[in-house]
Amino acid sequence: MGSEGPNPPVTIHVTGFKKFHGVAENPTESIVNNLQRYINEKGPPKGLVLGSCTVLETAGHGAVVPLYQTLESSVTKDASGLSNERVIWVHFGVNSGATRFALEKRAVNEATFRCPDEMGWKPQKLPIVPADGGISRVRETSLPIDNIAKSLAKMGYEVTTSDDTGRFVCNYVYYHSLRFAEQSGIKCVFVHVPLFLTIDEETQMAFAASLLEVLASMETPLSQD
User: Fold this and answer.
1) Among 86, 96, 174, 216, which is least packed, fewest CB within 10 Å?
2) In terms of Cα–Cα distance, which of 110, 91, 108 is closest to 193?
3) CB 62 within 8 A of CB 161
4) Which residues are within 8 A (CB) of 170 and not within 5 positions of it... i.e. 6 or more apart?
5) What are the backbone dihedrals phi and psi of residue 179, each rounded to the nearest 5 degrees, phi first?
């Protein structure tokens, strides 16, 4: 056991969002659509396989089925129901008022949308997953967010950590992903990025690639944070 050879590479899947109320051009759509090409041109980091790159509808309840189809497509489970591969999901979302990148530590089981999502849904104080209990339930990522932020800061990026993903679609998707990750034996993180007017597209592309590189290096071996 464990002596067959080196650890398998980490497969990282990424998602972004389409436009939504007040943000006609979502930078995460461009990041996700261009990430494969960008990494191929720069040369993929050792130990990293970039998996799927998916742009999600900026919607909550109405987009749950395709969200789970996307998440489940990344996982090959063993007899215990856990992933037999080393998988991380990275979800990118935009914070139009932000001036730096933010690595989100947690999501809350509450959907309170400040405006309707792209399917017209505007929940108020509803549990995202009723089976999890009330709206105060919190799920946290198992990734070492503080260490990841420090590594990225050393690379020259303006980055911080956050305990509050909001209560809109970003939090909604992150909560479902954290729940899925726990059930499937994989990991995930949500990252808020600024608008391209605040941090230009080239810098954001470099940040996304650097984040994947840091994640891959920290996940060797997977059992150590």
Assistant:
1) 96
2) 91
3) no
4) 17, 91, 93, 104, 190, 192
5) -65, -45
Q: Which two tokens stand for residue 192?
A: 């808020």
Question: What is the pTM assigned to this prediction?
Answer: 0.92
Cα separations (Å) of 191 from 123, 125, 156, 161?
23, 23, 17, 9
Letter for the amino acid at 99? T
Reported as a single tens digit per residue, the pLDDT across 23-45 is 778 999 999 999 999 999 998 88
Of 186, 224, 165, nearest to 89 (Cα)? 186
Least confident of 26-40, 84-98, 162-176, 183-197: 84-98
Confidence of residue 224 (pLDDT cuts 50, 70, 90): very low
Please write the tens of the pLDDT for every residue from 169-182. 999 999 999 999 99
- Output the CA angle 141-187-6, nearest 5 degrees: 135
Query: What is the DSSP code string of 139-152?
Result: EE-SS-HHHHHHHH
d(CA 106, CA 95) in angstroms, rounded, equals 16
Chain-centroid distance of CA 38 in Å reads: 18
169-184 helix and 64-72 helix, angle to the nearest 10 degrees: 40
Residue 19's CB is within 10 A of a number of other CB atoms, namely 14
| 101-104 and 187-193 strand pairing | antiparallel
CA-CA distance, 215 to 206, in Å (whole number)? Answer: 14
Can you read off the two tokens belonging to residue 61?
Answer: 């309840």
